[in-house]
Amino acid sequence: MIHDSQSSKEILRSLSYDRVAIVTDKHVESLVWPQMDELHPFSKIVIDPGESSKSQATVSFILDQMHQAGLSRKSLLVGLGGGVVTDLAGYCASIYMRGIDVMHIPTTLLAMVDAAIGGKTGINTHWGKNMVGTFHTPVAILYFPDVLQHLPKRHHKAGFVEAWKTTIMCKPNVWKEMEYPLTRKQITDVAETKLTLVETDITEKGKRAWLNFGHSFGHAFEHLYHLEYGLLHGEAIAWGMLTEMYFIDENTHYRSFWTNWVKANIPPLPYKPEHCNQVIELMRSDKKNSADGQYFALPFPSGSKIVAVDEGQQREALRWLETIIYH
Ligand SMILES: NC(=O)c1ccc[n+]([C@@H]2O[C@H](COP(=O)([O-])OP(=O)(O)OC[C@H]3O[C@@H](n4cnc5c(N)ncnc54)[C@H](O)[C@@H]3O)[C@@H](O)[C@H]2O)c1
Asked: What CATH fold (topology level) applies to the domain 165-325?
């Protein structure tokens, strides 16, 4: 289901849908679209770039544009962009006329190793990240790694975070080889690792939940610091992973590696002790919780596990995080 540039071009030339529309954002439209001749015959739906586009208003706009482009149940929607675009394209495809096919062409590192794979779609609400969404598996994911040449370094690093997460959770024996920047081979290896994991557990009843490592604190940080401080998704997850490593009571080499990497490569987290209650409150309404408690996926040296962590321990982790941020 993951295709290299050559087979991706062939797929685009031989599509057999009655109509095709491409969802993309304005940055990708100006930087990537001109190189993508194979897409030029199709309708284009352009949205504003950035996390704030993951909204009900953008969904309404895309659905209207899909209707105006004449898309039917036999049509295809393509997401050309980063995780914001692929999450939105997947969601709109899953609800338009009760569901049409979606295909993704990820253009950020984060989308190549993570967001475009596995069929999770979603938008944000005022009460949290990705609170509305569906599972809608793409019919194919097309890779054009050359597009990464335009991607700002900060976004490359944010993508590295999710690649490192998948590796430490699913292939811990190779984590030491995961150095920034990743090679093309490492990018597709991580993508294949995620794909293999999710194919056995599309709706996250089992091991797919390992990929949520860092996302309980991470989503709370993103919700609090995205708009005011411009913290990116991958950056919030980097700090979230670091915070959640507090719950690993075994000796780990990678905790010190990750602490140093995050401090050297990721913008400082604007967390202050007075934000503690807000973080805890946001985590209480996290959709990964169940009635019997809050669970965290963690990379123990003895193997990845999902463990229950109570609120007292979460507050302790935030106090520990303060010592890292301020020293
Ligand atoms: N569905 C999933 O399983 C999943 C997994 C991880 C993350 N996500 C979601 O992904 C989103 C983050 O994705 P992202 O980091 O790709 O952000 P993004 O989509 O906002 O892209 C980051 C920025 O890069 C620009 N851009 C995209 N491709 C470019 C290119 N080739 N060259 C230059 N600029 C380019 C975009 O316009 C945007 O400004 C979050 O909303 C997150 O929740 C989803």
From this structure: Dehydroquinate synthase-like, alpha domain (1.20.1090)
* Residue 277 CA to ligand 1 centre (angstroms): 29
Centre of ligand 1 to C-alpha 108, Å, is 6
Identify the band that residue 189 occupies on the pLDDT scale cut at 50, 70 and 90: very high
Signed CA dihedral, 304, 51, 239, 164: sign only: positive
Residue 126 scores a pLDDT above 80: yes
**Angstrom distance (rounded) from CA 132 to CA 213:** 20
Rounded to a whole number of angstroms, the distance between the first and last alpha carbons of the chain is 45
Atom of ligand 1 nearest to the CA of 162: 6
pTM: 0.97
In angstroms, the Cα distances linking 136 to 51, 116, 244, 246, 292 are 20, 11, 29, 34, 28
Q: Whose CA is nearest to atom 35 of ligand 1?
A: 151
Q: Quick one: pLDDT band at residue 292, thresholds 50, 70, 90? A: confident
Ligand 1 pocket, residue 212 CB under 6 Å = no
pLDDT score, position 252: 85
110 CB within 6 A, ligand 1: yes
Name the segment(s) of the chain with CATH classification 1.20.1090.10: 165-325
Separation of CA 12 and ligand 1 centre (Å): 22
Which amino acid residue places its CA nearest to atom 25 of ligand 1? 27
Instruction: Check if CATH label 3.50.50.60 holds for domain 2-151.
Output: no
- With a 6 Å cutoff on the Cβ, whether 151 touches ligand 1 is yes
List every span in the chain annotated with CATH 3.40.50.1970.
Answer: 2-151
Q: In angstroms, rounded to a whole number, what is the distance separating the alpha carbons of residues 1 and 139? A: 7
- The minimum-distance atom of ligand 1 relative to the CA of 87 is 1
